[in-house]
Amino acid sequence: MNAIDGTSRQLKDTEDQTLDDTPSLLSIIIDAHVPSWEEIKSQISISEAVASILVFINAHLALHNSNSVNVIGYNASGARILYPPKSGVESTRSKEREERSESVSDGEQAPSKKDHSMYRQFKTVDEVVQTELWNMLNHTNYVEEEKQHNSAISGALSLALGFINKHVFVDESRMRARILLLTVGHKNETIQYIPTMNCIFAAQKLKIPVDVCKLGPGSDQVFLQQACDSTHGIYMDISEKNSKTPKGLVQYLLSGFISDPSLRPHIVLPTQSNVDFRAACFLTKQVVDIGYVCSVCLCIMSQIPSNRRCPTCDTTYSEKTLAGLGRKPLKKKKKKVVKP
Amino acid sequence: MSHTFQATNKKVLGVLSISAETKKLEWTPVSGDRAPINVNLANVTNLQATPENSAKIMLKIVAGDDPSTFAFSNRGTMIECRDVLQGLVSRARREASNPPPSATGDGSSTPATATPPPKKEEKKVAMDDKSLLADFQLQQTLLKESKELGKVFAATVIHGGLKPEEFWSIRVHLLRAFALTSNQKKGPYNVLSTIKPTTGSDNTVNVQLTPEKVKDMFDQYPVVQTAYDDNVPRLKESDFWARFFQSRLFKKLRGERITHKDPTDPLMDRYLDDEYDKEAALAAGMPDKVHRFVDIGGNDSQAGSESFGNRPDMTMRAGSSGRDVVSVIKSINRLSERLAQKSEAPLAEKEYGTLALADLQGETGAEYVPLQVRQSDTNGNKKDSDGDVDMTPLDAEACKEYVHSQYDNPVSLASLVHDDYSADYAQAWGNVQGAVNQQKGSWETVQESLMDPKVLNDLLVVHTTTIEFLRHFWHNFQEGSAECSSMANSLAKCIKRIDAAVGEVKDEQQHKLAVGAMASVKTSIHHALKEYDIALRG
Amino acid sequence: MTSQFKNSINDYLEGLPEAVLTRLYQSPATCLAVFRLLPALARTLIMGMIFNPDPIAVADVDALVKPSSQRLKLETQKKLRLLHIFTETQAHIIINPTFKKNLRAALVGGDQNISFGVPCDTEDKHKVDVAFLDAHAVSQWEMILHFMVGTSIGRTPSDGVLNLLKHSGLMEPERGGLRITNAGFQFLLQDVNAQIWTLLLQYLNMSEYLQMDPVDVLNFIFMLGSLELGQDYSLSALSETQKHMLEDLRDYGIVYQRKASSRRFYPTRLATTLTSETAALRTASQSMEAATQDTISSSVAADSGFIILETNFRLYAYTESPLQIAVLNLFVNLKTRFANMVTGQINRDSVRFALSNGITAEQIITYLSVHAHPRMKGMEHVLPPTVVDQIKLWQLEMDRIRATDGYLFSEFKNFDEYKDVSTYAKELGVLLYENPGKRKFVSTLAGSQQIVEFVKRRNQKHRSSAN
């Protein structure tokens, strides 16, 4: 009589060959740091990249009629949600745009209302994203040099996670979420390690895959690779540094990054990450075989710090403990030379 | 508590009253002619009663010189009186010979605070390192208990040449934990709850009784002791127990409610009275009835007050029905406390306080130790081949120019379809597919390189022993002890062992896997020996 | 779209010849709609191929899918092949160029195609709003449903609709009128989206008969699915066939035209949710209620169920709609009716009545869970498992006896003969029942012939050996 059992006590078949058709929410985080784009302008122009991103967004929306998208931009001053816009913002921005478009004669933009060849849903999203993104780019605050090297990836990730949390978990809609990070990266870029790692751990816990598409020569490849690795995301470096080229971005996006979270268990991911999991000293940044570990914050050191304090958590070590670490074995009268 | 009987002495009707507290017997005539007779029960040497078949119903009490005789109207009364007297006399005599313990003995422990009884001197297992290391028996038992540990011990000490003291010196904590757990004994428990009268085949009731149980019972319930002492010289033991287990006294001590259906037993029911339960008497020092007019607190309580609708809970009812229940609960609580005190690790006052129920106090948050972590920005970055970070100045103007130019000449989506890009797209696809193939390839190699379980086992044993030796080596290295050289020798032997184990693997592919698996351990041994050499020379 | 209807549309499309499909793929809207019907792996693969100029190697696809999900890959490839989106050669897979071009156009735009409908650029003098459209859709649709159930609300659907109902087997002609069939009962229990698709598929089937180009019909249907609610569209974008269809669709309440000669039309909610999730759709009566009450916002009313089912089999339905009450009456023994509620009980008789009319237990259970009150939906089990199990058991009761036609073989001369023949029957696999004690057995009709021959051969053998 188990056949008619109304209660669903059986575990789901893990080898379920039929895919669940849940819609998914894609959070795209776009690097809007103009100097970085300027550096790679010979390889790909911003507008080309923007167009590619829009096509990708349309493709994502095409996959399922309830798919939704969230676009966030970040630069040295911070991060901002570009789509969905705050209500009220939309009308003012589009008005601005129309004014601009009237003054500049660009045949492509003006009849946007009259171009009916694109699916309406795509069109509305595209327009808002374009407006907001260009806004962000145009109104970049070019502040002092030192501060230009900060990058607000952690802020952008937090915004994305917050948005996902609200729309998927709090509102309890049946959606899967994922994050795509499109970064260009300045070579002197500095990323706040701990806040970003916290965001990665949060994404890991919520089972949100974080994909990374790297277009430029930014540093911190290792740390972004780690992010993809721990969340089972895809890492692709298509910058010239990696002997590839960001040209053809749209094809990269449509073939590498299009896969839905519900499809991912069934396919091999085209990820390029080879994370080096070896331990590294916090002081010298070299890889460490045998070293010392702080008993409070667990940071690894290859030598005893000269100021007797831990570099990360600032605890002082007592003389006695440090002296004990430096002891050597007693020399015997007869030296036994051991041949390994 | 006193018993009164109608009795006639020398043909004068009177009232015979026996007081348990004062251990006195007093006979007062109804009509005041004769003098009352007072007998101290401790002095009673002989007690006689007329036999069953005799017509007379008389009781003769010999206390000292003069015997007194009392006549009763019916046999039953006489029997009762005789029983009471017997009990009291034997008790009085006993008390006379053994002076009673000081009044502050049992009775003073009130339920609120527990005074810990003197620590029982017991053979305590020493918990310090030295004795643990010397206790071979303990070590043997632990090895037998834990198979894992036994295996490691066999591999390192028996086969590998490690000294047992070395082995245990880093595992003292395991020994200590094991010693503590194996020394735990079961504490005292309410023995009456274990005695369950079972009904036999032909309606006989059987009870299992062992001398230990009897001893426990006397320990926990002094009333039983009293009853036993009073009656057993006279009654047979089996009879006594038989009657005891059927009596209401037994039920009361177990904490069950006494219903009117239970059989009464004149002998046993005497002990039901509160005079035998000193503690209860002391605890119930409050007067029975507090006038409602005065008892403001009692009137106010929500639970007790009937104006709130439902009848109050069984434990909250005023009057005699409430008292029975409450007394039962209280006596059980007292018993539990007594047992806890008797146990071997009595609680200090502070610890006793922690036993109290605290679920109404609200949650205490977790206490975290705050770490002051310095926010250094590029922490965790491994240096690749780049040297220092160089800061090229930022050209804000160029950037603005670039953005504006881009904004004015946007790329439409449709233009992406242009043939110019085809080559790029093809290449992009190729790269993506390459990544997929690479991933798939590495995946497949993982599948193929599974080691044969037997080989794996052997290598694991060798590996564990090596790690053990490495641990000891580093321990000694840091301590600067003299053992270091022998440890260095042992490490050399380890390498030989590893090579031997790997050499034993016949199959080509497995051999390769084995070599790969042991490579990192060998590196660590080499590293250790190098450090040792440097230390020796430098 | 519920998976049932995905499947039926898929089946229909797979049945079309390649040339037709290629013509179908010339409309980006259709490409998009068909794209969304495909399984997930197919969609991912296609996306990777739209901009790629070269065909992809079969080995690439094999490498992409994990070995444990082989079955998925095979199913996907099969489906894509049947729909002529992929053509496979020895080592390569080529995507249908028309499909590729037009799907890309849907994503990228700019080629001035009109498959997504052309909104009107002139103002409508008699503009209507969304609430009106909803009300209109509901009233049209419910008219049809009421007609099927038999409640009289005064209006009858147009002849075209009646024709459709007859041809689809939902109603049958009887004594001058139409009577609902078993299939019709099942139809009533489905949700609106499924109902519309049933009718549309039927329309599609009839269209070939009526010499309407199925490509046009499908294009129009898919275009409707991509239109925006509340926007009026011009007829200039439609072909003749499609204009003709408009009249029929008007009768179903899928589109609204002020009069037959209007140059514009409005899609209703029934149209715009043709290709979307059922969750986004309100049932027809709920829309009507919401429109009349005029208070609840659309998202809230979207999932307002109205049925409460207790574990003692009692049912309380907070509805006043005669349609819903009529539907409930099919399988619930309704006892009392109040101003805003009807109550009743599900018992064996009521469920048997439904079962005898061809409704399955699954349909009843689905209907109940879809229309369950939000309070019920919040619980771990939406419907009490006891009731669900019992409905299924009542259905099983109908199958207590299963009749199979067969031949009875009896009166064997001796036990040996019986044993031989029955063993032979068993080996053939045609033995249905045997009783060795009485030396009888029953075999299937088909197998009886062979057994008779076997017996004849055996008797001959015995006779010859005896002689």
What is the total tally of β strands of chain A?
8
Gap from first CA to last CA of chain B: 93 Å
From the N-terminal CA to the C-terminal CA of chain A, the straight-line distance is: 70 Å
Low-confidence stretches of chain A at least 5 residues in length (pLDDT < 50)?
Answer: 9-17, 90-95, 97-113, 333-340
Gist of the model:
Chain B is of the alpha+beta class and 538 residues long. Chain B is 50% helix and 9% strand. Chain B is elongated, with a radius of gyration of 44 Å.
Descriptors:
heterotrimer, B: 538 residues, alpha+beta, PH-domain like, three-stranded antiparallel β-sheet, 9% strand, C: 467 residues, 4 domains, four-stranded antiparallel β-sheet, 15 strands, 12% strand
Can you put this structure into words, describing what you see?
The complex is a heterotrimer of chains A (340), B (538) and C (467). Chain A is α/β, with parallel strands linked by helices. Chain A folds into 2 domains: 24-103 and 112-266, 3-Layer(aba) Sandwich (Rossmann fold); 278-326, no CATH class. Chain A has 10 helices and 8 strands. Chain A has helices at 34-39, 46-63, 89-103, 120-138, 145-148, 153-170, 193-205, 221-231, 249-256, 319-325, and strands at residues 24-31, 68-75, 78-83, 176-183, 210-214, 235-237, 292-293, 300-301. Chain A has a 6-stranded mixed sheet. A two-stranded antiparallel sheet of chain A has the order 7-8. In chain A, strand 2 and strand 3 form a beta hairpin. Chain A is globular, with a radius of gyration of 25 Å. Chain A starts with 23 loop residues before the first strand and ends in a 15-residue tail after the last helix. Among the domains of chain B are: 2-97, Pleckstrin-homology domain (PH domain)/Phosphotyrosine-binding domain (PTB) (PH-domain like), CATH 2.30.29; 129-182, no CATH class; 214-295 and 318-341, no CATH class; 453-537, no CATH class. Helix content of chain B is 50%, strand content 9%. Chain B is built from 20 helices and 9 strands. Chain B has helices at residues 75-97, 129-134, 136-145, 147-159, 164-169, 172-182, 211-220, 222-231, 237-246, 248-254, 266-269, 278-283, 296-300, 320-342, 349-354, 396-408, 422-448, 453-479, 484-503, 508-537, and strands at residues 2-9, 12-19, 24-29, 37-40, 44-49, 58-63, 67-71, 198-199, 205-206. Chain B has a 4-stranded antiparallel sheet with strand order 1-2-3-4, with helices on one face. In chain B, strands 5-6-7 form a 3-stranded antiparallel sheet, covered by helices on one side. Chain B has a two-stranded antiparallel ribbon with strand order 8-9. In chain B, helix 3 crosses helix 4 and helix 7 packs across helix 8. The longest helix of chain B has 30 residues, at 508-537. Chain B is elongated and about 140 Å long. By secondary structure, chain C is α+β, with helices and mostly antiparallel strands. Chain C folds into 4 domains: 3-108, no CATH class; 130-278, no CATH class; 305-398, no CATH class; 406-466, Alpha-Beta Plaits (2-Layer Sandwich). Chain C has helices at residues 3-14, 18-24, 28-37, 40-50, 58-64, 70-82, 97-108, 130-149, 159-167, 182-189, 192-209, 214-225, 240-252, 269-272, 284-293, 298-302, 322-329, 348-356, 361-370, 374-377, 385-398, 415-428, 445-466; strands at 56-57, 86-88, 92-95, 171-174, 177-180, 233-234, 255-256, 264-267, 307-309, 314-317, 333-337, 342-345, 406-409, 431-435, 440-444. In chain C, helix 22 (415-428) packs across helix 23 (445-466). The radius of gyration of chain C is 29 Å and the shape is globular. The model of chain C is unreliable at 278-303 (pLDDT under 50). Chains in contact: A-B, A-C, B-C. Chains A and C meet through helix 2, helix 4 and helix 9 of A and helix 3, helix 4, helix 7 and helix 21 of C.
